[in-house]
Amino acid sequence: MKSAFSVKLFGPLALLALVVFTACYEPKKGCLDIEAVNFDATADENCCCNYPRLFVRLEHRYDTLTFREGDVYQQPSGHWFRLQKVIFYLSDFKVYRGTEVFGVTDSLKMYVFGAGAADTLQQYLTNDFVLARRTPLEYAAGAFPESGTFDRVQCRLGLPNAAQSVIPAKAPANHPLSEQTERLWLDRTRGFEAMRVIFNRDTLGATAPDTISLSRPDFDNFMLQGAGTFVHESGYDFYVLLVADYRELFSGIDLTQGSPSSWKAQFVANLPNALQIQD
Hints:
This protein is mainly β. The protein has helices spanning 4-24, 246-249, 260-274, and strands at 29-30, 45-46, 53-62, 65-66, 71-74, 80-97, 100-103, 107-113, 120-126, 130-132, 138-143, 148-157, 185-187, 191-192, 195-200, 210-214, 223-232, 238-245, 275-278.
């Protein structure tokens, strides 16, 4: 049988323990959105969600060989040459599910050239720009929260018209549209090169390299498209494979005669077979 004293004492002690416990307990913060890559079902307060991104995984090759900068390769005619560097822009990523269209959700305020010679403006652009080199082999195009199965992926080779007016010197450091060592920005009239290919037309050490640069007006709206089954699991990054076969890029070009200016049209014609999105 409890004494009156113990009953009277129990109430205040229980209340004190509850106050101490409440004061010491700190709610766990974490992401409670199941679509996020850092979803935490044990969190008490929702915060700090990081959403899946669309990644481009690049496979650079020359026919069945892995492309390595400066290596020697053979054309179908039997002619050997040295391929030094390939660099190109990708942008305007779109993912399709039937008639539904999804894109990267990131945007960024950029400085762009205005109408006057000294005018500069600020403009929001979809921030899905990729400057593809031999390395690295994966590039994040931007946030892509939509999950499920899709039947087509599309992107632009080069940059949309709005991005051609970006001022590289005012772009964020290390952004694809900032000042680069390759200097793909030409001027405010021509904007950025879409693609640059540097090669030696033979294997002789004394042969100077040639360069083919593709930009406006070589093509204005060249889109790469891949059809198939593309699956993006909820809570995971979404990877798209782009195969670049540079043997196809040089198809139909005789490097023993002619010049880069005479080869450029064939380069453009070869692009659909040279750059392909695959599921």
